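User: Hello, can you help with two protein structures?

Assistant: Certainly.
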Amino acid sequence: MQQDHRAKAVEQWGDMVWRLALARTANVQDAEDVFQEVFLRFFRSEQKLETDEHRKAWLIRCTVNRSKSLFSSPWKKKTVPLETVAEIGVEDEYSEVYSAVLSLPTKYRTVIHLHYYEGLSVAEIAQTLHVAEGTVKSQLSRARDLLRHILKGDTDASL
């Protein structure tokens, strides 16, 4: 019975965690590592989480934290990623936009993903990331400007 419950949890929340991990890491293998670690922690902590809204917020926060710790690990600091081309399941018509989103710095990728892909409001993003609403608004604004320049092909867009 426990196995069925876990499978349902991964089915319900897995896509959200995977997409956020991929948006944060911009690397399929790293996103897989984050995904696995997040769900391991989720299954250990699940009894403390009372509602689906609480579970969703916890999973988003845990995914953000795990991806941060991945980048700060000594292994990541001393290795250089191989350039890989992988199919990540993005529809062709959106692949240019999604590639542009993945080229943004992590803080901008995160707010764009949470706002547009997960449908969170500015207030919800601020609460989840533990930052001020003004910070989220400015990051969204800067991310949109950068995306506009990237999609237009401007080479002098500064990060």
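That covers the first. Now for the second protein you mentioned:
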Amino acid sequence: MLSFSQKRQLRRFATSRLMHIALLFACVAVGVSAYGRYEVAREMAQRRAAAERELASLSERRAALEAEVAYLKSERGIEAEMRRQFDIAREGEQVVIILDKPTTAETN
């Protein structure tokens, strides 16, 4: 157990100006550190949201590409793509190429 004079010295030290300054410095240091962690957490949340948006976009693109691949694997898809790219026709069919009407500047 501490004696009365020891308790008084301890109380005087705890309420001294030096102790107040040390406590203020510690509070400021903790505050600065907490704010730094808050900024890091906010930046990570923004990065996560951007990554989730990109993932959703890529998932939509993947679904579209898978649908296109499935279409191109079918007979109808292969035939349609060949007709579109190479202007081909089956036996007995004829290829018709439609041209725009010439403008008046081209006819003069």
